[in-house]
Specification:
The complex is a heterodimer of chains A (433) and B (140). Chain A has helices at 2-22, 31-38, 45-50, 72-88, 98-105, 113-121, 172-188, 239-249, 321-339, 391-394, 421-431, and strands spanning 58-61, 65-66, 93-96, 129-140, 143-152, 160-166, 196-199, 203-211, 217-221, 224-227, 230-233, 254-257, 281-289, 294-302, 308-316, 345-351, 357-360, 363-367, 370-376, 379-385, 407-412, 415-420. By secondary structure, chain A is α/β, with parallel strands linked by helices. In chain A, helix 4 crosses helix 7 (172-188). In chain B, 12% of the residues lie in helices and 44% in strands. Chain B has one helix spanning 2-18, and strands at residues 29-30, 46-61, 64-71, 85-89, 97-107, 110-118, 127-136. In chain B, a hairpin with a 7-residue loop joins strand 4 (85-89) and strand 5 (97-107). The chains are: A alpha/beta (433), B mainly beta (140). Strand 3 of chain A pairs parallel with strand 1 of chain B, so a sheet runs across the interface.
């Protein structure tokens, strides 16, 4: 009789287990958890989350912004990895505020990111909330670009953010971990430029070249454009975010996109003068993507007068990470030359940095050769590093080491002197004598 | 039979472990801003500041009390101007006001006022007062 009862219990348990094992939305049991359970430890992520101390800054986690070409599974993996890395490394405590945000902004959206953050800043929270966290992932040719943006309440709509390029999902873990570390450091200590630049979402148009036998041709409007295997739509604007990020990492501009949270912010306000009071300058851009040639037109406006003060157009054949990065820096260089005097800034035309990443002002600034970077007059360091982290971030003592590969830039009148590694450190040391 | 029990025991343990909720599930805390603090604006109330003077003399015209004369306070007296209107009372607390007067002149440290209205005859040792300003009422 006993054995029958036992068999019945086993079968019942097996049924429950089968359900759990085959549930699609539930990740499978982690061996670590089993070990933990056997050892009597409560080590699951929920327990860590629930026990995060109050000192860990809380962030309001919004839905991931994703662009065409990124599979749903990848988006989910990306989002889950962000939560996991935040919690496991005790860097941030993600919280949600969807009910309040939907009920508040559903009927009337906020005018801009500045008013949205301003509204939230004026409230008190039942946790140590530091700002609003918006992740973004997009696919450019063979790369994923991930961007983690934290709209801190102190930043008044100008965020701190971290960008990394990754090839596959297997790199998410490291890329996210180091991005979060960057954000954590920036949250602690950040001295943004006083020059505020509001970047409007880039206006993307997709075209396709149609040719006739007679030689006549035209670029006709299409709903998407295939760029290096990724079919981009007009709504797939990640270019503005990268532009704002790159402009900020120079340390010369404090740039932010006016609306990257369209679920709560209206798209109706696009006049440069709308942002007077929140910005010194406004950047508006039009992008034409086609199967032959792409065109990006940047326009720089002065917020106070609404006047167009500079415009520039760039043509490029392939929409790749390298190409976008280079073009953005070219226009940022031009912008800085209009905003600052020649005594205030200088330009780094080219540094060979093949195969390595570089970092400026606590932010990832690019991969490979360094070109068209504006720097403040005086001393600047560009840190080298891996695709995930700078040498100084991983090892704060790296500057003193013999195999230091960082770039020490010193501007002497109109001359830009670039020293590398140990030699650079010697030069800087002598300058202080 | 013993073997069946042992196998069953092993099965129970294995299924218990495998069937446990995975460590991946995570429920984030849903927060909302705390209710805005309602700031009740306290209406600031003011109370008048008077210069109170003892009447030295009440002069009569045809048997009717027409003028009052009082000594001006050195400091408060500077705040009193011609044409200002004051009150007359037989009590320094001014609980019962007998009438009103208008300042007609200030000279030699004395004030002369013309009686405007009067409900009772002004007895000796009465007082006059003129408002020279106001101050915020102290919260009780």
């Amino acid at each position: 009789m006993k054995s029958k009862v036992l068999t019945f219990l086993i079968l019942l348990k097996a049924l429950f287990c089968m359900e759990a094992l085959f549930a699609l939305d539930k990740p499978k049991a982690d061996p670590k958890a089993l070990i933990g359970l056997l050892q009597g430890k409560k080590n699951d992520i929920q327990a860590i989350y629930d026990n995060l101390p109050e000192s860990v800054p809380a962030v309001i986690l919004l839905d991931t912004d994703f662009k065409s070409g990124v599979p749903v599974k990848t988006i989910n993996t990306f989002t889950e990895e962000i939560k996991k890395q935040m919690i496991e490394n005790s860097l941030f405590k993600p919280v949600t505020m969807n009910k309040y945000l939907v009920s508040t902004y559903d009927s009337e959206k906020s005018k801009s990111i500045f008013s949205f953050i301003g509204d939230l800043k004026g409230r008190k929270y039942p946790a140590n909330v530091k700002g609003v966290f918006k992740p973004m992932i997009c696919k450019v040719a063979g790369d994923y670009i991930i961007k983690l943006t934290l709209y801190t309440f102190n930043g008044n709509g100008y965020p701190i953010s971290a960008v990394r390029f990754v090839k596959s999902e297997s790199e998410f873990s490291n890329a996210i971990k180091y991005s979060l570390l960057d954000l954590s450091k920036l949250l602690e200590k950040y001295n943004p430029s006083n020059i505020k630049v509001a970047v409007l979402p880039f206006n993307i148009k997709c075209k396709t070249l149609v040719e006739q036998k007679s030689g006549e041709f035209d670029f006709i409007t299409t709903s998407f454009s295939n760029q290096q295997g990724v079919e981009l739509k007009e709504t797939d604007d990640y270019l503005s975010e990268l532009f704002a990020y790159q402009a900020t990492c120079t340390g010369l501009l404090n740039a932010g996109v006016t609306n990257k949270i369209p679920e709560y912010i209206s798209n109706d306000f696009t006049e440069p003068s709308t942002f007077f009071g929140n910005s010194n300058y406004v950047v508006k851009s039009d992008v034409i993507l086609s199967n032959q040639l792409n065109l990006i037109s940047y326009n720089l406006y002065e917020s106070a007068s609404g006047k167009l003060i500079y415009t520039s157009k760039y043509f490029f054949e392939k929409l790749t990470v390298d190409e976008i990065w280079k073009i953005n820096f070219k226009f940022i260089r031009e912008c800085c030359s209009k905003i600052y005097t020649s005594n205030e800034i200088k330009f780094i035309d080219f540094i060979s940095n093949d195969g390595k990443s570089y970092y400026m002002n606590g932010m990832f600034a690019g991969f490979g050769n360094i070109s068209d970077i504006p720097v403040k007059t005086g001393k600047t360091i560009i840190f080298s590093g891996t695709k995930y982290a700078s040498t100084i971030s991983v090892n704060p003592e790296s500057l003193k080491q013999k195999d230091n590969n960082d770039y020490f830039i010193y501007t002497n009148n109109n001359e830009v002197l670039i020293y590398k590694g140990r030699e650079g450190e010697f030069v800087w040391n002598l300058l202080e004598k | 039979m013993e073997l069946v029990r042992k196998i069953s025991f092993v099965f129970i343990i294995v299924f218990s472990l495998v069937g446990c909720t995975s460590t991946g599930t995570l429920t984030l805390a849903e927060i909302k801003p705390l209710p805005k603090e309602v700031v009740v604006e306290v209406k600031q109330e003011f109370e008048p500041v008077y210069s109170v003077m003892k009447i030295l003399e009440v002069s009569e015209v045809n048997g009717v009390q027409k003028f009052v004369i009082a000594k001006l306070d050195k400091v408060e007296g500077k705040e009193i101007a011609i044409e200002m209107v004051g009150e007359i009372s037989d009590d320094i607390s001014f609980e019962k006001v007998l009438g009103t007067f208008k300042v007609t002149s200030k000279a030699g440290g004395f004030l002369k006022g013309s009686i405007e209205t009067l409900t009772h005859k002004i007895p000796t040792n009465s007082y006059i007062r003129v408002q020279i300003g106001q101050k915020a009422k102290e919260e009780k």
